[in-house]
């Protein structure tokens, strides 16, 4: 995405592919992502998943749900989050999750690229 431009997040094309069987907990589901760019070393883009259930190990990420709904289970913490349009979520690197998508989910994500070492600075604004 070029500076000083706008796009409709709902119109971004995301190519969906079958989720690998080792991650899948339902009969079938697909997901995919379209990277839109990198800003200050942080990758941003659109990710989407069809209805179904699949596991993942997360990157350090912040995302905003654009459409759809899901329950994200955190088995190691024995808790879950129900997310839908307008929800802003933070996931920690290495967190194991199980996503149950109730209605096809689309989110805007911000994450460190896979080859970037270390977590994002969480200390807040700097003077």
TrEMBL record:
It comes from the Bacteria. Pfam families: Cupin_3. InterPro entries: RmlC-like_jellyroll, RmlC_Cupin_sf, UGlyAH_Cupin_dom. Residues 39-109 form the (S)-ureidoglycine aminohydrolase cupin domain. This is Cupin superfamily protein. It comes from Arthrobacter russicus.
